[in-house]
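Sorry to interrupt, but I need a hand with the structure work. I would like you to pick a protein and set down its sequence and fold. Please put the record directly below this note.
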Amino acid sequence: MQKRIILASGSPRRRELLSKFNINFDIVQSDIPEIINDFDEPKQTAMSLAFQKANDVSLKMTNGEIVIAADTIVVFEDKILGKPSSEDEAFEMLSKLSGKIHSVITGFAIIEVGTYNKIIDYAETIVKFKGLTSDRIKRYIRTGEYLDKAGAYAIQGYGSIFVEWINGSYWNVVGLPISKLDDILERYFGVRLF
């Protein structure tokens, strides 16, 4: 019998990614606020937030479910760029990233309810932006795509034109490192994405 999969995320991008595969899953959003502490190491921050979300949702489950949670952050010059709270903040973030290299880290946590089986890990992708004019950044912000996006851009949308190259998983930048997730689900939880 297929184990019940729970995606502990309200992200439409993560839901869409998992929907591409031959698994049934339910969505139960976590109530954990995404609080980023500037003093914490970025990878640890992403993994900690993912674990908090997965743990929050797993406590609402009964038995045997596999809860998957993730948190994606953008890191530039050792500082975490979260989700911008305004157009001005989005402009500032994108101006910083213009012509530069940054890192996208997705921490993820998988918990099997009713057992002690849990994995907390991360994936990292290096992204290089081309140089952006102020006008191009302002036009992008007017699309509204920057909203609710770490680093103020979406690689799968209009933001794709900013990206000169990446080193690592494209899907990790979208919000879920599918290949790594599949390996861990199969090895430790007996679940295959297809």
Notes: The chain has a mean pLDDT of 94.
